[in-house]
Task: structure prediction
Amino acid sequence: MQIDYSDISKNYDDYRSFSHSEILKLISFGNLKNGMKILDLGCGTGNLSASVLDFIKVDMTGLDKSFPMLKKAKAKALQVICADADYNLPFNDHSFDVVIGSYVIHHIKNRMSLIAECFRILCDGSLIFLTSSHDQIERLHPVIKEFFPSMIELDKKRFPQLSELDYLFKGAGFKNIKHKELIISNIPIDMKYLEKVRNKFVSTFYLLTDSEFNEGIEKLEAFIKNNKEPVYRDWRGTIILGEK
Ligand SMILES: C[S@@+](CC[C@H](N)C(=O)[O-])C[C@H]1O[C@@H](n2cnc3c(N)ncnc32)[C@H](O)[C@@H]1O
Result:
């Protein structure tokens, strides 16, 4: 099922952002340097681009197919292009030093063709995706798992296995493929968290039936109100990188 980001764009920035430590890990693991030409594929509201630009001076272009998401990115003074990454990318060969795609690969129908396109538009640089592995998806906090029971299976259907991405990277010609885990610990499951879930801060919530979502919200609210001490969850993602 396709997710409509027009609606999500309204409050995406209120609930989704990158921490300094995640950005610094990305810069160091991706060997991002001042002066590089970088494409932020599926840039959305430009959160990742803007955060990277807080640390290094690069020539950053954001591409996304959702015009409302891009409008927010443009308001952050980013250079943006509206295009669908399921088709050939609108750039010449050897246009970028690095292509980064954060939480976009699970939306792409023809991943083989996109990864080949990324290889084509790169100079001798790297392709970097931020995503979640199936192992990380399965490690959803028991409370969220209990209240929204379909989430894990839905996400495992949407997100490619890391082995699939490794295979596609290799097939396109990328070498020295490596992974790094990103972990954000001690996220409290509190009223602020409930607000994020209520606002469907991750797109999987849009895929639940109304009854599962509404019942889950009621149970989560009761759970938070009944707990004197907040319960904490972790968030885990993976950076996958291949060199041209
Ligand atoms: C989960 S958001 C991630 C946004 C941003 N990269 C971030 O990490 O905050 C996914 C984004 O991918 C975009 N997207 C999905 N399919 C796409 C496609 N075929 N071509 C271009 N963008 C796409 C959506 O419009 C949305 O902005």
